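FAQ
Q: What does a multi-component entry look like?
A: The components come first, one per line:
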Amino acid sequence: MFSKFNKRVDAIFLDKNSSDFNISESVNVILSPSLYWVKKVSLPVKRLRDVKGLMESLFEDILPNGVYSYFAYKRDDDFYIFAYEDKLVIDALRNKGITSSQVNNVYFAQSEFSHVTEPIKINETQTLYEKDEILVVVPSTWVSNAQEMDLKDLTLSKNSVALKQFSHLVNDKSLYALGATGLLLLALIASEYFITLQKTSSISSAKDEVFAQRGLQSTMFQNRALLKDYSGTHERQTKLRLYASKILNLKLEKDVYLSLVELKAQKLKVEFIGVKKSDELNIIKELKSQNAQFESTLKDERLRLEIAL
Amino acid sequence: MNRVNPIHVGVLLVALLAFFGLQLSIAKEDLKNEQFLYQETLGLATQLQGLTVAYGDKNAVKKSIETLLNNSSLKSANIERKTTASGIVLASNGLDKTALNFLMSKVLNGSYNVASLEIKRIDDKRASLKMEIKW
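Then the predicted structure of the entire assembly, as tokens:
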């Protein structure tokens, strides 16, 4: 049963049989023994951290199937070791109308009521009873001198646990492994990012050096325009030499001769005199073999060629 | 109570991974562009250097033409030369066949920017010439 002690509660006692509880602020939750397993053991170790590695094995073969979290504290020379199911507790809280965000800390009845020697009444039917220094829930009819539970003046110990909301889905090891993998990936991507930035910067510097060493214009736009201009010149000059060479090496008939070679406005004009139709065909054939674009006119044995460069 | 939701952590991690992944992708693209631009600059510089030496070096072209015109084959041809800011104009009203052949073979085999040219036959042995070479 769930005990509601006052409207503004600082601590509540949570049992599987608790009734619904309406709270508006965060509370500390004390778990009933019905929500955890506890063992009091005497171990040949002194420090609590040495016990932590052994907790799971101490409950081996006792616990029903489930995903358990463990907790331990030392009292005198003995260790009190707890096993609890986070999901079971969270479900119990949810069923009683308490959300995870309303839970401040979670304690065990064993640690919080250890100072009480008399049985403590949880409700009309259930009572907390200590047997061999372990608190258990017994029917109220078994004990006659039970006290009322008073949480108002209760000073909570430091033995609290944090519930893991998703422990039933992913265990801690997997979570850490996933997190570590993610962080590693993040580190790899981040380092690759900075290496890439560094590479970009060094290539940019090398490019600036090329500009300075080769005396290029300040912008690529200007350089491209200049190259286009020079390339055009080079192309025209190459064509001029090619066609001039072809024309000057033509095998002309005895009475045919070259009377004019003129280069103007990117056009090469050539004039032959004494040209007959058969001569014209031979000359045109030679020019066509060079893929030249030209126009020809033959008039009064005067052949005029106009070749585009 | 442990309120850190692994799903939130996972989403944050995935978001961070996606963010850095995107940044990395942008940086890689920038690197690729920079590499391309560097190669283009290098190629362009090499081409420009070669073409500038061939067509744009005023002093080299001027010196080369002077050397050519001072050749014994052309000295007697009395070729007129007129230098302008953008080039040089050569002209002759009676260039003999040998001198013309020599001059044209040197010009056409050299890397000169011949901007305009006019060769007119006068008779079997002579021709007139007007040629502008630019730099």
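Q: Is there any commentary attached?
A: Sometimes. For this entry: Strands of chain B lie at 80-83, 87-96, 113-121, 126-134.
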